[in-house]
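Morning. Coffee machine broken again, so started the prediction first thing and wrote up yesterday's gels while waiting. Chain of 400 residues, entered below exactly as on the submission form.
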Amino acid sequence: MSEVSHTTSPKTEYQSLIQAGELKPDADQAHAVDALERLYRELIDLPADSTRGERSKSRLSTVLFGWLNSGKTAPKGIYLYGGVGRGKSMLMDLFYTVAPVTAKRRVHFHEFMLDVHDRLKTWHALSAREKVQQGGRANDDDPMPFIARKIILEARLLCFDELQVTDIADAMVLTRLFKELFAQGVIVVATSNRPPDELYKNGLNRQRFLPFIEQVKEKLEIIPLQGPVDYRYDRLQGAQTYYHPVNEETSMQLSTIFFRLTDRQIKDRDKVPSEELNVQGRTLFVPKSARGVAVFSFKRLCANPLGTADYLAIARAYHTVIMVAIPQFNEHNSDQARRFIHLIDALYEHGVKFLCSAAVPLAELYVGGDIGFEFERTVSRLTEMQSEAYLARGHGKAIM
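Came back before lunch.
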């Protein structure tokens, strides 16, 4: 039995949120919670994995594969799909927090695939001797069993947010990779805006991707979250998104919105976790993040030498970004202004909600320098990003 505490479960946590007035009763969500509760109970019966380090990996390998070889089948995972704001990520995060497994990973699907491609590149660069030293076979041309084993030794429970496939390189890898992951006992919980049959729809060589869809339908319980309610938009309706000046009052207003969006209590502000994003082999630190909402200071994102790849990673990973302490721009901080332009472009193109505190009103944000024309577009986008039409727009969906 797992050594994780079982004092809470997905159902008790969900009911607590309803009783606290943080959520309203919802039949589709209740059905999804029942499925998550089922998986939670089945996970309790898995072997313990609470030790750490290399011994942990060895022990996890022994107990996991011994459990599979006993004739038992892995618990069926869960695939939650539906429109924006239906609570998919909230429910998955609720499950992940209480899941009675210590070897677990919660990751945006895009970031996971970047990691997989990095592992493939590393594997192909290994010599025959190095492959053997790392547990592979010298003459093996198929890296997937090796990579799948490495992944599952790090986490037997994988929780993917926003599973979507638009890249042919990802599509060609997924069938082979997940065949190995499922064979080795990985358990998956995923959220997506699309039902499985619509993944990679009209994609190049889609027929080669269809076995992945069949694997998802076989190994995961498919649960729709339908209906017109957009909880995320509902919580942002009527809220101000651009605050000025930068002071204690505006900081408190942004903090209040953050806790409203993430179903947390202000008294628990010290318990909000940080996170790290992998960007082309580098680590991007996210000071505060919860349920798809990230908080950054302006200095962290725009005073440091970050670029478009960093901003795109943020835009893909979070549906809402809160930035504090944007300065007034002039000829002395034009490099920071350029980075800010690139950040807003990435967030806008991905439909990310943007809330911020700034030194001055939006119309006075840029007062001099050589990028006035480019910044006019940024002001226009920031204005549009405050509109109800933009706030109702789905994350990752381009303007039509």
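Confidence is low (pLDDT under 50) at residues 49-63. Going to sketch it on the whiteboard this afternoon.
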